[in-house]
Amino acid sequence: MDRNEIIADPRFAGISSFKKKVWLSLPTMHGEELAFVEEAVRTNWARRDYSNVI
């Protein structure tokens, strides 16, 4: 979708751009994080509905 299509899409009605930038950090993996992610995927704990979050 280009910007004009997004603006015209009713699903995005009322959503506006941030007045200031929101800086996000780059995704990185340190230590055991990759192993935790791999285990979550392998054991089906990676879910889109966040039902695995306690």
Annotation keywords:
54 residues, elongated, 2 helices, 30% helix
**Gap between N and C termini, in Å?**
35 Å
Number of strands: 0
Strand content: under 5%
- The helix/strand order is HH
- Pairing-aware structural class of the strands and helices? mainly alpha
In DSSP terms (H or I, runs of 4 or more residues), the helix count works out at 2
**Low-confidence segments:** none
Largest sheet: none
The helix content is: 25-40%
What's the layout of helices and strands?
Layout: H1 3-8, H2 33-42
Give a nutshell description of this structure.
With 54 residues, the protein is mainly alpha-helical.
Please characterize this protein's 3D structure.
Helix content is 30%, strand content 0%. The model has no long low-confidence stretch (mean pLDDT 79). The chain has 54 residues and is mainly α. It has a domain at 28-54.
